[in-house]
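Page 42, continued from yesterday. The earlier attempt failed because a stray header line got pasted into the input along with the sequence. Redoing it now with the clean sequence only.
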Amino acid sequence: MNDTTRIRQVVTGLMMGTFLTMLAVPTAMAHEEPKKQESYTIGLSMYSLRHLFKDGRLKPLDYPAFAKKTFGITEIDIWDGGFPEAQRNDPEFYKALKKRSDAAGTNIFLVMAGAVDATGETAEQRKMGGDAFKRYVDHAVVLDSKFVRVFLKAPEGGKRKVAIANSIEALTPLADYAKENGVMLVIEPGASTWARNGHFLAALARTMKHPACRLMPDFGKLSDPYCGTVAMLPYSESVSAKSWGFDDEGNEKSLSYFRLIRSINDVEYKKIISIEYEGEKTPPVEGVRATQKLLERLRP
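This time it went through. Structure tokens are written below.
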């Protein structure tokens, strides 16, 4: 074999190797696993900024852009207590808010509503307790929101079994309506003694087994925030991170966020935890930022 032939074979081999490598790269890329979300997403509750809305420093339609620009948060909820009363049931207002949210690059993932009353003496009265909240589902449809948050006013006293049965009667028609419209109810603790018990709410969700009715732990509204959060998590679609004040190291002074977030990380929760700052001493923006920093620090 002369030198010319040997050189030609070497060059041909190199070219073939390069060609096969180029073919292999796209194949390998095609089989790569999509990057998984490592932890929870931090969202913002509009209620955290209630003082800004009440004194006119922040207009409701500017809220989405404000959340994105000020905190870098894109998952937000709405609270109609921050809206002008005349616009709270105006579909055109919600259409305008949706447009502003899209322009800001935010997602209104949840609509806040009040307490479903399950204390009526008859099944018909209990059903009416849920019917009053169908308008919030309608608002969620306009906003393309996935969730409507409700409280539950369960019957006080008596047996837990009866309180669960009566609550299901009140919630089911509303949950059915939500399902028909592609929306999901999430029950937040509060509004009654039973409903501040995380184990009760977990039992309610487990018994009800409705695909459009789940739970939303709130650190500040559970009688036992630690055990209650753990009990609710298997049935939860969102979490409300309540906060009031912080020490010099940035820890929430009223709650052990380390313990709470550890329980959330232990179940590999990858949904939204919304900041709901309710403090009065620290201004709203600073309070939200402090809560945000704490949640970021405790991510796994």
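Notes: Residues 75 and 107 are 5 Å apart (CA to CA).
Reminder to self: strip header lines before submitting.
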